[in-house]
Heat shock protein HslJ
Amino acid sequence: MKNIFQRLIYALIFCLLFSACSTVKGPPTLANNHWELQDVKGVDIYLAFNIKHGIFIEFNDSTKKFNGYTGCNNFFGEYTVDGNKLHFSDMSTTRMACPQMKSENLYLQAISQVDNYRIDGKKLLLYKGEEVLATYKR
C-alpha cells in the first residue's frame, strides 16, 4: 500500500512539473491580453487629467471584437488585423457623463485614427502612419 501511495505522489509531482514546464509563454500578442494605457500622443493622461482608474483595451482573437475602458465609459467594437495593419470598426461607447470627458475624447479620437500597431516587448504601440497615437503595457 505504501508503495502504491509513493508512486501516486511521484506521478502527481511529475505531472505538475511537466505541465509547468510545458506552458512556455511566447512574446505577447495583440489578442487575448489586457493592455493598460500609458500615454496618448506622448501625454500621460492619468497625470494630465487626474484619472484614478486604469484605462485599457483588450482584443478577442476568436470574435475579432475589442473592448476597453476610457476612465469613464466602456467602449467596444470590431477590429481587423492584416500583418501589422489594424483597423477598428463599429466603435461604440457607453454614455455616462464624467469629469474626465476631455481625456476620454482625446483618447477615443486618437484610437479611432489607428491604422497599424507594433508590439515591443511588453508594450503595445498604436500608430497612424509613423505617429505613435497610444502606448500600452501588458
Remarks:
- The chain has one domain: 29-137.
